[in-house]
Amino acid sequence: MSRTRFVHQALCYGSADEFLEGTLTFARDGLDAGDTVLAVVASHNIGLLGEALGHRSDEVEFVDADDWYGSPSRTLGRYNAYCAAHDTDETGGPRRVRVIGEPVWSDRTAFEVREWMRYESLLNIAFAGTGHWVLCPYDTRVLPVAVIRSAVRTHPELALGARQSAHCGRYLDPADFYAECDTTRPPALPAGRDDVPFARGRSAHVRRAVSAYARGLGMSEQLTHDMVSAVHEAVVNSVRHGGGRGVLRLRSDSDHVICEISDTGTTAVPPPTPPPFPGHLPPDPRAASGHGMWVVRQLSDLATEALAPSGSVVRLYFRRSAAL
Length: 324
Description:
Blueprint: E1 7-13, H1 16-32, E2 36-41, H2 43-53, E3 61-64, H3 65-68, H4 72-86, E4 97-101, H5 110-126, E5 133-139, H6 145-154, E6 157-159, E7 165-167, H7 174-181, E8 196-199, H8 203-216, H9 221-241, E9 245-252, E10 256-263, H10 292-299, E11 302-306, E12 313-319
Parallel strand pairs: 1-5, 1-6, 2-3, 2-4, 4-5
Antiparallel strand pairs: 6-7, 8-9, 9-10, 10-12, 11-12
Helix pairs in contact: 1-2, 4-5, 5-6, 5-7, 8-9, 9-10
């Protein structure tokens, strides 16, 4: 198949044979065309596809999906960096990157599953201007029905085996899917005695508060650094764009450490228009602004935002299972 634009397909498979029917020809066609081929799949599928490829398996880069799909934003950033590093050939000419990317859905909370669905939809925006090709396997034997149903709403095409595909009639524009995800938000955090007010010139106070909270939970030095850096960046954004003052709330539950940054809004006339997909898409490295929320999302496991001229709330999540 000769495809020049970005292609994003879902492969729903219910057996090893169906997995190979959808991925083997995809990988071979890519190698024959001189494409870079990356397979980020479940560990048992690495062995399955590698054996089927035979001696050509050395031409494919295999990665265990559990080691790649840590958080939605960092995964998107990782794919972006990989494609940027492999999208030219030895002569400097353009090269397509083909990815077999099998997201990890197990051991996720309902909130995390929703954010991974959002990630699948955002791939269509992040790589829209490229000629890369991403094939996402979905194992119907083990995945929840809701996850399988989301595939036809976040992928423009459904792979139907070797070199066959169909347009997904239920595919939803990423902007609409993004808005739909935002209709279900976690409940607001209640005020507490330990809330940390912030304003211009108070960023050092915020960093000390976050660091002390992280140490109290026994978080590692690296995770503490990431948490302090992410909150600092979010607070700086809030001060700059949200009226100059706000409140930081620090909480934790059985799954996550939660840092919520809320501000009082801005009196600017006309009010600023919130950016689309804030911080989800890699910023232009040459741009003077627009990097803040991208950095925040790269440092945290999950992040949600409600941006409005009357006041914004950014909530950052750090997984407890990785904090100790």
